[in-house]
Write a structure and sequence with these properties.
Largest sheet: 4 strands, antiparallel
Shape: elongated
Distance between the termini: 55 Å
Strand content: 25-35%
Order of helices and strands: HEHHEEEEHEEH
Structural class: alpha+beta
């Protein structure tokens, strides 16, 4: 969670804290990771054993492979739903210079559902989670998320807590306003 606070701190508003971060299941992206590890690291190491005079070429190849692997890890980690104490942030990272986010406030959420479909999704516990926004009828989806039932539970738990705190604040403001009006009436203002 420490890395999440560092990686996503630019998305947060004042007083907002990260409660949970939902990512795409690594099983979905493992093929890309293994391809980069094999083609970018293992293969040039093998060539280095066979043809040591070209060590500079192989080391350059390995460095390029490591950079590509790090880029894919960032791409996987930074495409996430950030569940905070104030709402949900759908954060999309499409490169070092292209980022986007969509904020969903808890009071605008109409429903949260999840869908686990298929053999591997059931075995590996990943699926899609959808949030329907009130009024607009739009649905925000995070596909192939790890443990979608847990994500749904986190969203609903934090939504309930947010709405209870909001209701308490509204009641306090209303009470103070009524007290002020009664005092003004007694003083003849």
């Amino acid at each position: 969670m420490i890395f999440a606070h560092i990686a996503f701190r630019g998305c947060l508003n004042r007083g907002e804290t990260i409660r949970f971060v939902a990512h795409v299941h690594p099983f979905i992206t493992y093929a890309e990771f293994f391809k980069l590890i094999f083609l970018g690291i293992i293969l040039p190491l093998g060539f280095n054993l066979i043809m040591p005079p070209f060590q500079v070429v192989w080391m350059g190849w390995i460095i390029c492979g490591l950079i590509a692997l790090i880029y894919e890890i960032f791409n996987w980690y930074l495409d996430a739903w950030i569940i905070t104490n104030m709402g949900i942030i759908d954060y999309q990272w499409d490169g070092f210079f292209k980022k986007s986010s969509t904020r969903i406030e808890y009071n605008t959420i109409e429903g949260v559902t999840y869908n686990i479909q298929g053999f591997w999704a059931t075995i590996m516990n990943y699926g899609d989670i959808m949030i329907e926004r009130m009024g607009s009828g739009t649905v925000v989806t995070l596909k192939n998320v790890t443990a979608p039932k847990s994500v749904e539970r986190e969203v609903l738990k934090n939504q309930k807590e947010f709405l209870q705190n909001k209701n308490m604040k509204d009641q306090t403001v209303l009470r103070d306003l009524l007290v002020s009006m009664v005092q003004d009436k007694k003083l003849g203002k």
